[in-house]
């Protein structure tokens, strides 16, 4: 695989970074994951806007313009002949000197890493026909979940808890209500209404969330942005998650209780179809 490191396209085995990089020592960095369908980037503009915001919240300079980011993404997709898959982008603060809690000066060059993942048939994932089973676990993450940092240890633990329980994912619960999934936003459906937690620093501002809510309104569905409990989700007609890599994925079981019929519902199926259709049209 050819990867990108600080301006160079290299074989993955030749891409090396300093052990003093603050991404490595302190999880001091941010990332984005962009899906590729038919060789094109999905919602690229949304990823650029969020990347810029994450960097600015951490007082890091954006090392590239959106046009430069696009050129790097396209080059990597071409070099690795990706038809369906993902581009992972990471910017860490770098570090010119020794380990220190204080940030180095703002003109320090960040470390920029991008690589591709090949996922043939990404949009035809058969799991979308079956749906996810999830368990709930306490949300004990830090308070700035709106910044897309590489600090992913607790989400990893949540995935492991799900794996050990024989299910697909975990939903985080805080103060009696769901925040989000380990790597996705969480929703329930009641009648014609889509319910999902409002944006705040408690959750990542999913770019798939923004697109799906827009398409839901256009399709005459109602959208209510408020928190819900696990009990309310278990009693809902349908449930689902969204993310840039899973798109719209039904959730059919929560903590052992079936949601609705226990099969993916028609509202979620419709949202997935609209999302994929519209985003393919707008891909770059
Ligand atoms: N919440 C969390 C915690 C995530 O890690 C992700 C995936 N990046 C999402 C939500 C979904 O965001 P997006 O739709 O932008 O992929």
TrEMBL record:
InterPro entries: Aminotrans_IV, Aminotrans_IV_CS, Aminotransferase-like, BCAT-like_C, BCAT-like_N, Class-IV_PLP-Dep_Aminotrnsfr. PROSITE patterns: AA_TRANSFER_CLASS_4. It catalyses: L-leucine + 2-oxoglutarate = 4-methyl-2-oxopentanoate + L-glutamate; L-isoleucine + 2-oxoglutarate = (S)-3-methyl-2-oxopentanoate + L-glutamate; L-valine + 2-oxoglutarate = 3-methyl-2-oxobutanoate + L-glutamate. GO terms for molecular function: D-alanine-2-oxoglutarate aminotransferase activity. Its cofactor is pyridoxal 5'-phosphate. The keyword tRNA processing does not apply. Keywords: Amino-acid biosynthesis, Aminotransferase, Branched-chain amino acid biosynthesis, Pyridoxal phosphate, Transferase. It comes from the Bacteria. Its EC number is 2.6.1.42. Belongs to the class-IV pyridoxal-phosphate-dependent aminotransferase family. This is Probable branched-chain-amino-acid aminotransferase.
């Amino acid at each position: 695989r050819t990867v990108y490191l600080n301006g160079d396209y290299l074989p993955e085995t030749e891409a090396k970074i300093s052990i003093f990089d603050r991404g490595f020592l302190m999880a001091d960095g941010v990332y984005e994951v962009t899906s590729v369908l038919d060789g094109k980037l999905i919602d690229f503009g949304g990823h650029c806007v969020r990347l810029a915001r994450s960097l600015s919240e951490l007082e890091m300079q954006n090392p590239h313009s959106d046009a430069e980011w696009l050129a790097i993404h396209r080059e990597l997709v071409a070099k690795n002949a990706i038809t369906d898959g993902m581009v992972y982008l990471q910017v860490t603060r770098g570090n010119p000197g020794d380990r220190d809690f204080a940030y180095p000066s703002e003109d320090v060059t960040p470390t920029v890493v991008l690589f591709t993942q090949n996922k043939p048939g990404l949009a035809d994932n058969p799991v979308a026909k079956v749906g996810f089973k999830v368990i709930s676990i306490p949300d004990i993450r830090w308070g700035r979940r709106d910044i897309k940092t590489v600090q992913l240890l607790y989400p990893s633990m949540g995935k492991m808890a799900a794996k050990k329980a024989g299910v697909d994912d975990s939903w985080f619960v805080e103060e009696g209500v769901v925040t989000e999934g380990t790597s996705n936003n969480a929703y329930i459906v009641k009648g014609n209404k889509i319910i999902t937690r409002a944006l705040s620093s408690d959750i990542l501002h999913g770019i798939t969330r923004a697109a799906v809510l827009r398409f839901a309104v256009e399709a005459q569905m109602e959208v209510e942005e408020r928190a819900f409990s696990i009990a309310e989700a278990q009693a809902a007609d349908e449930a689902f998650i969204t993310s840039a890599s899973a798109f719209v994925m039904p959730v059919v079981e929560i903590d052992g209780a079936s949601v609705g019929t226990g099969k993916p519902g028609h509202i979620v199926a419709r949202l997935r179809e609209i999302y994929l259709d519209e985003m393919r049209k707008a891909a770059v």
